[in-house]
Amino acid sequence: MKKILTVLSLFILTGCSSYHNINEDGESSLGGGFKDRIIADGVYKITAQTNFAPWTNFDAANETFNRRAKELCVGNYNVIKSAEDEFEHVETAGAAKYIISRVKGYVRCETSKLSDEEALKEVESSFY
Fold first, then answer.
1. What separation in angstroms does the CA of 67 have from each of 34, 36, 38, 70?
2. What is the spatial order of strands in the sheet that 33-40 belongs to?
3. Cα(30)–Cα(119) distance, integer angstroms
4. Global pTM value
5. Which residues, including other chains, have CB under 8 Å from residue 14's CB and lie 6 or more apart?
6. Percent of the chain with pLDDT over 90
7. Fewest CB atoms less than 10 Å from the CB: which of 67, 79, 92, 126?
8. Running DSSP on this structure, what letter comes out for residue 123?
9. What is the pLDDT of the chain when averaged over all its residues?
10. Which residues pair with 38 in a beta bridge?
11. Is the pLDDT of residue 127 over 80?
């Protein structure tokens, strides 16, 4: 019984979003965290991902994404483009998977002098 509770606790902990700054601290061994970069004045690209878990958890990835956007913008922002995906942290032959849920997107801070349309043009021109 104790072993089952330990395993269950591990799944609960690893399935949560990790608020870990990948830019500053490097990749997390659990897979979670966020990274960002500035695209233009008040426009940011943000990638947020959960720790690995045997299930998809886009709610947790979106929570990290939004928390980081609020920090970068020091308040309100608009999401001008975003997408969700998932991938296996470590490929396994068994039934249990180590899935990381991820949200990638762009935000424009309300304080930006760019409109959403202008910010989207900046985003599209930043692809390389």
1. 10, 12, 16, 5
2. 33-40, 43-49, 98-109, 77-90
3. 33
4. 0.82
5. 30, 51, 52, 53
6. 62
7. 92
8. H
9. 86
10. 44
11. no
Secondary structure (3-state) at 51: coil
CB 61, CB 47: distance < 8 Å = no
**H or E segment to which residue 8 belongs:** helix 2-15
Other C-beta atoms within 10 Å of 55: how many?
11
For tokens 């910010």, the residue is 119
Q: What is the DSSP string of 73-122?
A: HTS-EEEEEEEEEEEEEE--SSS--EEEEEEEEEEEETT-SS-HHHHHHH
Res 99: pLDDT: 92
Task: Tell me how far apart the alpha carbons of residues 44 and 64 are, in angstroms, rounded to a whole number.
Answer: 14
Place of tokens 């299930």: 55
pLDDT tens sequence across 39-84: 999 999 999 999 999 899 999 999 999 999 999 999 899 999 999 9
